[in-house]
Write a structure and sequence with these properties.
Layout lengths: L1 E6 L9 E6 H9 L6 H4 L3 E5 L2 E4 L8 E6 L2 E5 L5 H14 L4 E5 L5 H4 L2 H4 L4 E5 L2 H8 L10 H6 L10 E3 L2 E6 L2 E7 L9 E5 L4 E5 L16 H13 L4 E4 L8 H22 L4 H7 L14 H13 L2
Parallel strand pairs: 6-7, 7-8, 8-9, 13-14
Antiparallel strand pairs: 1-2, 3-4, 4-5, 5-6, 10-11, 11-12, 12-13
Bound molecules: zinc ion.
Zinc ion binds next to loops.
Length: 314
């Protein structure tokens, strides 16, 4: 039996071709995926380039990267919640019969890593050295005790899956036709932060060092010098598309904005320190009206702390 169908765009984004195939071949072509469009996957999915998708249910939520290759799927993070993780698992099944081979965590926090168990095994989880220790320390197996029913249902079978592989500074991962460069982003957000750079596609999964239109939670080990260095290092890769750890994907403007914000914050706090003001006075008097529209204003004290540490050399 011979039928005609349109197909193409399986993994590499080839042009649509009209072909005659017998039924058994059709089944395998359909199963090979790439036929599902971002719309077919649901409202929370966006296509970046052929074979590269992102999932996020809300603007401030963490982002999952889904990268198809001829040898299987590479995920970058596993979802804000376990409902997101399950949604990503379903989307992967629509896109390809191939398994998720690797999960790269861009940080250690639960809104990027709790869903690791949904994919591993068979997936191998990777992050920079220090990730496993930090995740084991912070793990709370009772975290779902008071969760909403849909989260509890999605948490069926939960167990902590910390990275199986921890690299130092830089690692290259080659899967099928794609190259992934894993780059350590030092002291920028969590105990172990990784940016994932696809040099051929010029897509950068930047992690949470710079998130658009949001104040970040600047933890005590994070320095403004390292945040500025992160923005410069990531921008110097010259990516075409930047996927931040949270929020919509965009361009290197995300790094420009972040750099501008921290530079101004540091400038204002330094002037106040020079004028003899205490940390408490600075907290009460500092104004950043240019960024009043950014999300998570309640994180401002942690930002002032970081600027104060930098200004006083502590
Ligand atoms: Zn985080």
């Amino acid at each position: 039996m011979t039928v005609q169908l349109w197909y193409g765009r399986a993994f590499g984004g080839t042009l649509m071709k009209r072909c005659c195939l017998n039924v058994s071949v059709i089944v395998s072509v359909v199963a090979l995926g790439g036929i599902a469009s971002a719309q077919d996957l649901g409202p929370n999915f966006r296509k970046i380039k052929d074979g590269i998708y992102v999932q996020s249910a809300r603007e401030v939520n963490s982002t999952v990267g889904i990268v198809l290759t001829s040898e299987g799927v590479v995920l970058i993070d596993t979802g804000q919640t376990l409902v997101d993780s399950r949604q990503v698992a379903d989307a992967v099944k629509k896109l390809t019969p191939l398994p998720v081979r690797f999960v790269i965590n861009t940080e250690v926090h639960p809104d990027h890593t709790t869903g690791n168990f949904v994919f591993a095994p068979p997936a191998v989880v990777i992050n920079h050295a220090g990730a496993s220790d930090a995740m084991r320390k912070a793990d709370n197996p009772n975290r779902f005790a008071t969760a909403a029913p849909e989260i509890k249902a999605a948490a069926e079978g939960y167990r902590l899956v910390a990275p199986h592989v921890e690299y130092q500074d830089k690692m290259t991962l080659r899967v099928g036709e794609r190259t992934f460069e894993l780059l350590r982003v030092r002291n920028a957000h969590s105990e172990a932060d990784t940016a994932v750079w696809l040099p051929e596609e010029r897509v950068l999964f930047a992690g949470s060092a710079a998130i658009p239109n949001s104040l970040n939670n600047v933890r005590p080990f994070v320095t403004i010098a390292d945040l500025l260095a992160a923005a410069r290092m990531l921008r110097s890769l010259n990516p075409e598309v930047v996927v931040p750890g949270h929020g919509s994907f965009g361009t290197t403007k995300i790094f420009d904005e972040s750099e501008k914000y921290y530079t101004l914050l540091l400038e204002r706090v330094t002037a106040m320190v020079k004028a003899g003001k205490s940390r408490e006075q600075i907290g009460m008097e500092l104004r950043m009206p240019e960024y009043a529209g950014w999300a998570y204003q309640e994180r401002m004290p942690s930002n002032i702390d970081a600027a104060y540490r930098a200004a006083t050399g502590r």
